[in-house]
């Protein structure tokens, strides 16, 4: 068998114990032997076992013998070395190595690598098995353990390439859409990645490492260790998923019991709510987040909670039906300003969620006590159902936005109103800038230029210019609430009619 000087330098016993003083470390090594008064073989790495004075002429003579025979290099004990000797090795292009560990130990490990190349891989796999063991370990512990075994950066990534645990300088190089082990050459090393596969068609997580410098020569033995560690992550995923699903079923059952209440909650129901950390007293504002396509609500719950927290919404969130039901509780009745502020936070959270989830969101009014919780959740559910058909509102609807206009909406669906509504907004038809949709979004957003711009995905100056044109074309003042209500109803009637098959 053969190897290379570079590969020997990646062996754990050699990695931190040998310095390269000169020469090409890509030289092929066929055998490793201690220095003796004999002929040097081609591809032989000569190990000087005993200390030798830096001024000893035998060092220079050995370098010449290795160069003449086509040897693989010379390994010396660490010590003073004449610069002329190093320059000679450089000129002869003979790898010259200096060892801080006992050279005899290094000779033995090199011979083992030559005699049984798979032994290094087996040792690493066995060490990974022993270090991780059968116990369920969290990802952070798995990454830390593997980093210590490889002496290299290790990280766990999600399917978008974002870091979950550990650190990895070139994490963006991992192709998370390809469900196969990967290898990528870096400027100074190698990137290796292994998918963590469950029952999904593509991996949900990736375990990756970067082998820098001389460690890159060991890239042929590390993938098996990554595979063992990926199995440990898989065990954690399965156990965690089982726990999440058990908790989700328990929470959904508790929510169902609360929503079916027609009297005061029983002592047992109050205890179950307390165990779940839910407060039944105080004032509640219901939230309903519906999903329009098949979504694994259990798996995505933490993402929903994270987005709500990022917007400052401290809500209980429960996997419920084809989405999530939640609520915010306060000890005192929230003021109108607080309700508007909460609605703005939830609208911002809806926009963020819609980046990755096809959701529609409804928000109820504040109601007190346990029976009020069921009431506000029912309102939020109705609002979410309506928000689903209203892209102009950003698929978001707060019950307080409905008011009298919603009561009048039934009238807007009559045969007599729709023609009148079409006539009212006819001047906007055919104009550049989609003025009807802009007007509807502007009125749904309570005349907020910034909110309208966010819903439409345009600059606020664009919205302001369009509103000026709308007022000019219709000869109306949108600051006048009667005219604003009439136009709001007209836009709603026309868009609803056009949306129906």
The main sheet orders its strands as 2-7-6-5-4
CATH level 1 name of the largest domain: Alpha Beta
Global shape: elongated
Mean pLDDT: 86
| CATH architecture grouping of the largest domain | 2-Layer Sandwich
Stretches where pLDDT is under 50 for at least 5 consecutive residues are: none
What number of domains? 4
User: What is the C-alpha radius of gyration, as a whole number of Å?
Assistant: 35 Å
How much helix, percentage-wise, in residues? 40-55%
**Class by alpha and beta content:** alpha+beta
Beta-strand percentage?
Answer: 15-25%
Q: How many β-strands, per DSSP?
A: 17
Question: Sheet bearing the most strands, described?
Answer: 5 strands, mixed
Q: How far apart, in Å, are the first and last alpha carbons?
A: 74 Å
Using brief descriptors, characterize the structure shown.
single chain; 501 residues; alpha+beta; 18 helices; 4 domains; 17 strands; Beta-Lactamase; five-stranded antiparallel sheet; Alpha-Beta Plaits; five-stranded mixed sheet; Udp-n-acetylmuramoylalanyl-d-glutamate--2,6- Diaminopimelate Ligase, Chain: A, domain 1
Can you lay out the helices and strands and say which pair or pack?
Layout (H helix, E strand, L loop, with lengths): L2 E2 H6 L1 H4 L2 E5 L5 E2 L1 E4 L9 E4 L9 H13 L3 E5 L5 H10 L3 E4 L3 H13 L2 H15 L6 H12 L3 E5 L4 E4 L15 E5 L2 E8 L8 E8 L9 H38 L7 H9 L7 E9 L5 H14 L5 E5 L2 E8 L5 H18 L5 E10 H19 L8 E3 L4 H10 L4 H9 L9 H10 L4 H8 L3 H15 L6 H19 L2
Parallel strand pairs: 4-5, 5-6, 6-7, 16-17
Antiparallel strand pairs: 1-3, 2-7, 8-9, 8-12, 10-11, 11-12, 13-15, 13-16, 14-15
Helix pairs in contact: 3-4, 6-7, 6-8, 7-8, 10-11, 13-18, 14-18, 15-16, 15-17, 15-18, 16-17
């Amino acid at each position: 068998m053969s190897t290379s000087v570079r590969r020997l330098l990646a062996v754990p016993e050699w990695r931190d114990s040998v310095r390269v003083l000169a020469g090409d470390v890509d030289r092929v090594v066929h055998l490793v032997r201690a220095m003796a008064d004999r002929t040097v073989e081609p591809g032989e790495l000569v190990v000087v076992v005993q200390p030798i004075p830096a001024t000893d002429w035998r060092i220079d003579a050995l370098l010449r013998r290795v160069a003449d025979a086509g040897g693989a290099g010379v390994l010396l004990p660490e010590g003073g070395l004449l610069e002329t000797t190093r320059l000679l090795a450089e000129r002869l292009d003979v790898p010259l190595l200096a060892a801080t560990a006992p050279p005899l130990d290094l000779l033995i490990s090199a011979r083992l690598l030559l005699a049984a190349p798979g032994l290094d891989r087996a040792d690493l796999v066995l060490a990974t098995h022993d270090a991780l063991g059968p116990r369920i370990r969290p990802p952070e512990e798995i990454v830390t353990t593997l980093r210590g075994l490889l002496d290299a950066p290790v990280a766990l990534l999600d399917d978008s390439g974002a870091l979950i645990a550990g650190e990895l300088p070139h994490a963006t190089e991992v192709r998370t859409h390809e469900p196969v082990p990967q290898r990528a050459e870096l400027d100074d090393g190698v990137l290796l990645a292994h998918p963590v596969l469950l029952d999904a068609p593509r991996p949900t997580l990736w375990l990756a490492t970067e082998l820098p410098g001389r460690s890159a020569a060991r890239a042929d033995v590390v993938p098996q260790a990554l595979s063992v560690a990926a199995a440990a992550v898989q065990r954690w995923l399965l156990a965690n998923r089982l726990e999440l699903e058990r908790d989700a079923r328990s929470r959904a059952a508790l929510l169902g019991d609360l929503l079916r209440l027609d009297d005061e909650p029983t002592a047992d129901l109050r205890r179950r709510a307390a165990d779940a950390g839910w407060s039944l007293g105080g004032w509640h504002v219901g939230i309903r987040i519906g999903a329009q396509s098949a979504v694994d609500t259990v798996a995505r719950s933490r993402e929903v909670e994270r987005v709500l927290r990022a917007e400052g919404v401290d809500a209980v969130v429960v996997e419920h039906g084809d989405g999530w039901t939640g609520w915010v509780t306060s000890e005192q009745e929230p003021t109108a300003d607080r309700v508007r502020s909460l609605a703005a936070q939830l609208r911002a959270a809806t926009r963020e969620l819609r980046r990755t989830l096809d959701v529609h969101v409804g928000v109820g009014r504040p109601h007190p006590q346990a029976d009020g919780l069921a009431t506000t959740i029912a309102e939020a559910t109705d609002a979410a159902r309506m928000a689903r058909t209203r892209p102009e509102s950003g698929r978001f609807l707060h019950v307080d936005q409905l008011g009298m206009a919603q009561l009048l909406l039934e009238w807007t669906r009559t045969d007599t109103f729709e023609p009148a509504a079409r006539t009212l907004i006819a001047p906007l038809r055919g104009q550049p800038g989609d003025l009807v949709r802009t007007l509807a979004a502007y009125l749904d957003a309570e005349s907020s230029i910034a909110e309208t711009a966010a819903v439409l995905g345009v600059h606020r100056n664009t919205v302001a210019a369009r509103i000026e044109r709308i007022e000019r074309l219709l000869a109306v003042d949108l600051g006048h609430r009667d005219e604003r209500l009439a136009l709001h109803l007209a836009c709603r009637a026309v868009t609803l009619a056009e949306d129906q098959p």
